[in-house]
Amino acid sequence: MKLAGRESNDIDECANGSACGQNHNCVKTEGGFICGCDHGWDGDNCTKDVNECSNTSICGPNQHCVNTLGSYICHCDIGYEGFNCSGDIDECAYTSMCGPHQHCVNTVGGYRCDCDIGWNGDICDIESIECTNATVCGLNLICSSTNGNLICVESKLVINSTAASVRASDGLTPSNEDPGRNLDGGP
Fold first, then answer.
1. Rounded to the nearest 5 degrees, what angle is found at the Cα of 1, between the Cα atoms of 26 and 4?
2. Which of 56, 57, 65, 131 places its Cα 20 to 30 Å from the Cα of 158?
């Protein structure tokens, strides 16, 4: 460098990259240099990591901050994915999210398990359809409640010209193809 017709012997101490040390940046000045801390570092020797996550608004909505040495990373909150964590994950698309007698309902950022029709309780283990009301099925019908389903079946014997056939009584299950034949092996 030349100053007013004279040649300067000013050395660039920052040129070799070792003038300041780790986690520092070097700024050349006239006749010398200044060391400053790199972004994310602080303290006398730039050895103290700055916790960028202390700024609670550093990450966007649906994100949480994770401090790293000299920096930070924004991760999507549980239930979100995609660019800027703006996509809601459909947890119900995965199998086995809910237990027996339950169905999955996707919500923003999560999911819930609702009881199937005919089931109640915290874990949907209480059958709620009951045959306690005599008018549930009507005249000449028997109410049967099994596995969360309410079924009304005929309760009387029907006589036809060939033989007596049981429609359903005493816990027998009628055949759909032949109402005179029982699936339980009964008459």
1. 130
2. 131
